[in-house]
Fold this sequence. Notes:
By secondary structure, the chain is an alpha+beta fold. It has two domains: 14-260, Adenovirus Type 2 Hexon, domain 4; 265-442, Adenovirus Type 2 Hexon, domain 4. Helix content is 14%, strand content 31%. The strands form six sheets. Strands 1, 3, 4, 5, 9 and 12 form a six-stranded antiparallel β-sheet that branches. A hairpin with a 4-residue loop joins strand 22 and strand 23. The longest helix is centred in the N-terminal third of the chain and has 11 residues, at 111-121. The protein starts with 11 loop residues before the first strand and ends in an 8-residue tail after the last strand.
Amino acid sequence: MPDWQKGVKQAQMGSDFVKVDPTAKVPVIPTQIDFDLPDNASLLFGPMSRFRIKGIFQKQAAATEEWANVPVADAEKMLLAPLWFEMLLKEVSVFHNNYRIASSSELRHIVPFTDAYLLHNMETKAKTLLCPQPCHPAYCLPEVNGKWATDQQAWKDYAKEALAGKAISFDFTPLFLFPFYQGANYMTDGEVPRILPAPAMGRIQIRFAFTDSQDHIFRKATGNTANYRFAFTEFSLMLEEARLSNAFAKQLENSKRLLPFPGVTRIQLVEPVPDASTTYRTRFQDIYLPESLFIFCLNKTVASGTYKFSSGVTTTVFTPHNIQSIDLSFDGKRFSLREPHMGNILNDALDSKQLFDHWANPPFGVHQDLSKLTFKAIKEAGKNTPFPHVYLSLITGSNRERLIPALDDGTCVNRKADLEVNFKFTDANSPANVIYVIYAIYTDVNVIYDPKNRHFSSPYLQYMN
């Protein structure tokens, strides 16, 4: 029989949707925007809790001071950077009582490139819920086997939505940002996001820091002397506040149990590999065995924050990496003693394993769009896509049990140690003027709240514990 008629015994009685304005008025070109989360109700982080952005693309003709709306015809002589909005962000931070809640360790300038890969390949249901509007920057990306240029259909299609000569508005939820994006797959993995008992926690603040200029996201054709900008007209936060039964609200307020939040932890190495190297060695120091490694290559100016899409000539998002194989060791013990092994990424016999790993244990835990997850796209480490990369899955199944180094008895999973990564490059050697980005990834829990001490910590980041 139906069991829904609980009445006052229900934990959640309903919810209210509230709009939260930033602490200061948003200028046309902001440098910083802060939000204070309300602390008078527990918060729910389903599809109604997200940021809302409105604005319009404008142009300023040479030798004039007036700004006019950009017509779609300008798409033939101007190109936006892939995932342009995130390219405007220096950093998005969450603070609890004035100290930063960190669930990952990575350089802020690299995040837009990583997120471009994830959003490009994300399973369509999750992406539709996360980015519902056609003008959303997540659709400002190349096709799976295409280039990013003004003559490409992917750019033409997006330009019709974003450069329509009128204001656009879109939702924005930064990937893996606690508490807005919980778990690896947005609202589609069967898990309900954990409630945030705000009244018992104290002040929580969200801060958006922007780049000093917007010039770097616009690549102009030869002869185009106009200036461009995205003029903000609104930046707000929508939240869903839970109306709880008195008994459950009191239980939340008085609970002393640890509250873990599911999410993705990203620990990053950025390596300026010398030009024309044949081999290279680096290591993650004092970490737990990760679930996987994700490796790609970028222009070296990205790490310093001086990269400009406007002055570049590349038509891909990641740079070709020229990696032939990867050899791994944990606590001084190699994972493989024979070849071929999982690090022989250009071995034809392992292409099928790469395809399976991207499907069964996808990068960063984010389910992939199967229409893009093709053998051709995976072959030779993504060489024929805009995102050439190396992906190594280090688990044995869906329960996240780790692969164990060949001479270890399995006790290594209980301790931290150094994870050594050895590169061997193709005959072309390592490219010039690049950095290599290496991620160690965990996808179970990324933030833990201790109500007894009113303190947030990370199970994987040493400085957060």
